[in-house]
Amino acid sequence: MIASVRGRVEHVGLDAAVLEAGGLGYRIHATPGTLATLRDGAEVKLATTLVVREDSMTLFGFADDEERDVFELLQTVSGVGPRLALAMLAVHTPNGLRRAVAGEDFKALTRVPGIGDKGARRIVLELGDRLGPAIEEGARPAPTPAGSQADVVAALVGLGWAAKQAEAAVDKVLAEGDLNAADTGAVLRAALQHLGGSARG
């Protein structure tokens, strides 16, 4: 398993980054929160995990070992694959997930696209106390990857929301007038918060 990658950031997108290490460029999928910590040309180290399928090998990167470990643990739940686990970490911090599972907060879990009431109950049942106790944490930085408004919608769709939901969320946060449409990082974060705060069945 590739446990970490240290190298120079070649490119930061809305759902993945490319790190050059040892003459190779690694495309690493990550959450907006993790991508927010990366800057083109910077030397960084990401905790990683390699997901191997019959037809693909996909590398996922995280700001720290804790987030990677939670990502891997989430996939032990029936029906939770890497894409859904990544979406869960895009909506909730590791501690947020610990609180939701420990408190049986099904509403919080169903804020993640692709998780309904049955899925939320299965996650709570199968994870139990395996995530450990929640601890106090500071606010996570807002993502600042570059791109256009259409890229923000595409990133949300990639995380599992329907295109209409994604477009409506972007329109909603821009209509509030507090954001610059050119600041796609802020728009993406606001849209994630809006979607995460919407009730799901």
TrEMBL record:
Its main location: cytoplasm. Residues 146-201 are annotated as: Domain III. SMART domains: HhH1. Transmembrane segments: none annotated. Keywords: ATP-binding, Cytoplasm, DNA damage, DNA recombination, DNA repair, DNA-binding, Helicase, Hydrolase, Nucleotide-binding. InterPro entries: DNA_helicase_Holl-junc_RuvA_I, Hlx-hairpin-Hlx_DNA-bd_motif, NA-bd_OB-fold, RuvA, RuvA_2-like, RuvA_C, RuvA_C_sf. One of its GO terms (biological process) is DNA repair. It is found in: Cytoplasm. SUPFAM superfamilies: DNA helicase RuvA subunit, C-terminal domain, Nucleic acid-binding proteins, RuvA domain 2-like. GO terms for molecular function: ATP binding; four-way junction DNA binding; four-way junction helicase activity; hydrolase activity. Signal peptide: none annotated. One of its GO terms (cellular component) is Holliday junction helicase complex. Residues 72-91, 107-126 form the Helix-hairpin-helix DNA-binding motif class domain. It holds the Pfam family RuvA_N. The RuvA-RuvB-RuvC complex processes Holliday junction (HJ) DNA during genetic recombination and DNA repair, while the RuvA-RuvB complex plays an important role in the rescue of blocked DNA replication forks via replication fork reversal (RFR). RuvA specifically binds to HJ cruciform DNA, conferring on it an open structure. The RuvB hexamer acts as an ATP-dependent pump, pulling dsDNA into and through the RuvAB complex. HJ branch migration allows RuvC to scan DNA until it finds its consensus sequence, where it cleaves and resolves the cruciform DNA. Homotetramer. Forms an RuvA(8)-RuvB(12)-Holliday junction (HJ) complex. HJ DNA is sandwiched between 2 RuvA tetramers; dsDNA enters through RuvA and exits via RuvB. An RuvB hexamer assembles on each DNA strand where it exits the tetramer. Each RuvB hexamer is contacted by two RuvA subunits (via domain III) on 2 adjacent RuvB subunits; this complex drives branch migration. In the full resolvosome a probable DNA-RuvA(4)-RuvB(12)-RuvC(2) complex forms which resolves the HJ. Has three domains with a flexible linker between the domains II and III and assumes an 'L' shape. Domain III is highly mobile and contacts RuvB. Belongs to the RuvA family. HAMAP family: DNA_HJ_migration_RuvA. This is Holliday junction branch migration complex subunit RuvA. The gene is ruvA.
